[in-house]
Amino acid sequence: MTIEQTPAEIVLDQAAGCLVGLAAGDALGGPVEGMTRREIFERYGFLNEMIGGGRLGLEPGETTDDTAQTLALAESIIDRGGLDPDDIAFRLATWYRFRPKGIGAHTTAVLERIADLKDWEQASLEVQADNPASAGNGSLMRCAPVALLDHGSMSVLIEDSRLSSRITHPHAECQWSCALVNLVIAEMLAGAEPRRAVDNALATCAHRGDVVYQVLERTKHAALSASEDTLSPGGYVLDTLECSIWALLHSDSFEDAVTIAVNLGGDSDTIGAVTGALAGAAYGFEAIPERWLLHINDWQHMQELASSLIELA
Ligand SMILES: [Mg+2]
Hints:
The chain has helices at 7-29, 37-44, 65-80, 85-96, 105-117, 120-130, 144-150, 154-166, 172-189, 194-206, 213-224, 237-249, 254-262, 268-283, 290-293, 299-312. By secondary structure, the protein is mainly alpha-helical.
């Protein structure tokens, strides 16, 4: 962000930073997904370049399912003029037919069922009933477009964020993690610094009688914890939430936030993606390192989608 930008230009820069930042975090973390923090350190030192490889055999800068699902959501919202879960479910099921890299087991089960049943809610609830404790980060990774659509109304944002989760992840912890992260993004678009944005998001959620207490606790823990040694960088939604908020609040630039996040290891592409969305909204598109953008396929499309979502809002 530069001093010459108008408020509207700053919001557009933040929105583009949010979606392109998500892709950058996904691509940076993809090659080290499944490695421990120690394994990453021993092999790469501190990973801060688009290296490619890893268990998915990625090209440098190649994004994974996190970015693909985010694109599906953003494109659906723009085409339909708002959040249409039937259309999003159809797009996700269509995308799934191409057997994308890196997709999680829970999301796979739901999308297979959507292809059979044509009813996302029944499919989603059936898979959840088969495994009631399943609360992965599969909807948190893709929820950011809803924040760009609904940043002007926190109550609409909460409802749409939860609805976007329910398409595949109806668990209440998943729904409220999406709401919390999107509230933080919306607060930053409204001008709040990261720590203030997290405090405001927590306050907004705390007023809701139906909020999941654990989502608030884990977010507070991320804000208060000084050490990364207390973090579990796994695919459980509350672990991903805590790691991403922690990385946002324990850094002072886009690059710092995203590199700290992916070097935690574990589900590093998704933790990178969620942190990238948050840090991109905090610092704007112009803060994303050019040496990373050079490797990211079609980031211009994500930038255009971000602008369209803001215009729709
Ligand atoms: Mg992934």
